[in-house]
Design a protein that fits this description.
alpha+beta; globular; Thaumatin; Osmotin/thaumatin-like_sf; Thaumatin-like protein
Length: about 120
């Protein structure tokens, strides 16, 4: 689960409460030593192809389109970027210099989260 909170309260961005490791295609999975999925790579990171990374001949919005992989992420977390030229409405309208991004372990987020038990970072 990933949630964000702006330091300024001018607008809000909803978090993504889905465990992306469950939806992650095998070719994007990062596995630990026990063969458990612990992360999900972007298609750009996994394949390093211009078409997935929106670079070179695919480096413009008219040439770089969402892939099947980015659509998986977009379906799960519609308020977040899923590829280079994705412009989710909440992010377009929420200009801020500082956000708090909270990463919670799998299984959290089903109910209330106690803030002292989570890892957060300000950016």
């Amino acid at each position: 689960m990933v949630t964000t909170r702006q330091i300024s309260t001018k607008c809000t961005i909803n978090g993504c409460r889905k465990n992306m490791n469950i939806f992650c295609p095998p070719e994007l999975q990062v596995l630990n030593e026990n063969r458990q999925v612990v992360a999900c790579k972007s298609a750009c990171l996994a394949f390093n192809l211009d078409s997935f990374c929106c670079r070179n001949e695919f480096g413009t919005p008219d040439k770089c389109k969402p892939s099947l992989y980015s659509k998986i992420f977009k379906d799960a977390c519609p308020a977040y970027y899923s590829y280079a030229y994705d412009m989710p409405a909440p992010l377009v309208s929420c200009a801020s210099r500082e956000f708090v991004i909270t990463f919670c372990p799998s299984g959290w987020g089903e109910g209330e989260i106690e803030s002292e038990n989570i890892a957060s970072t300000s950016i």
